[in-house]
Fold this protein.
Amino acid sequence: MNLRRTSAVIRKEFIQIIRDPRSLGLAIAMPILLVVLFGYALSLDIDNVPMAVWDQDNSQISLDFVLNFKNSKYFKVIGCYDNYRVLEDMIDKRKILMALILDKDFSRNIRSNKTAKVQLILDGSDSNTATIALGYVNSVVSTYNANFLKNFLQRYNITNSNPIDFRPRVWFNPDFQSKLFIVPGLIAVIIMIIAALLTSLTVAREWERGTMEQLISTPVRPAELILGKFAPYFVIGFIDLLISILLGRFVFGVPMRGNLLLLFMLSSFFLTGALSLGIYVSVVAKNQLLASQMAMLTSFLPTILLSGFTYEIFNMPRPIQLITYLVPARYFIVILRGIYLKAVGLDILWVETVPLILFAFIAVSLAVRKFKKKIL
């Protein structure tokens, strides 16, 4: 080994790195971002599970029972309501994960040595979170039966050692099958990979191969060039969407409970935005390696980490939760799981549809405006 030649190569590599500050910035920022996300923002522990309460008894005894959930770090009581329709609507919109309903004779049954009925409605579309949350509820009820009620047993001369008749009812995924939760979310991840990562190389490849100069010399307009590069990947994206649905249905047994045409229509908004974002990255980077790194950082990683696919958003710190509103996959995953598992329509999903339309419009506008027919 010749140390002189080796040191010359080392100096040359350092010079190239210094001359490309964007790649250097990505090389430094990416590990920092991952460490912060995994070490601080994301947690496999489930805290602050959003829940609603319908206390039909409204007595001191029922209030004392509900306080066990309010005072627990594992639950966050969103509010108290008085009918099933409101609770149903909140679960459909993912505002709450569970609803606790206390019978109107809750306190009277306890005082009469009878079993008081408590119903739990639990959204099982996320089987992992639902299983953990159900375990927390069982723990609270067991503790209440064993310890908290001792005062009432003595005060009212009650001999019933198990006064709470706990009746959990799991909606949408009663068997806690993880595949029913994972497969719809995977569709968003697959589309983002195909869309952003592949299209991020299209324009950059032209610059690297030296063919961009030939395109610039033609009468093709920037918008036409962008559309020409967009269309083939849009077709590929829809083929991948169809393959994912077929595999989910016939290989994994995931049922399609909602409207398939609605799923295709809303998927087109997400696919359009993701493809345009990839093209915009490619126009900005003009280098395939840098373009792939930027696409990974701006699309793939947020989809995996900050969309609710891997980790529950309500379990993240508040600043990170605010950042997730900028992640398009957050809305698309809610749409996918809503159509797949809950069979809901636009009357529920319009809240997520509007941000997807805005994302598609902004991404297309940025890609068209950024591309210029000139050699810089």
Q: What stands out?
A: The radius of gyration is 27 Å.
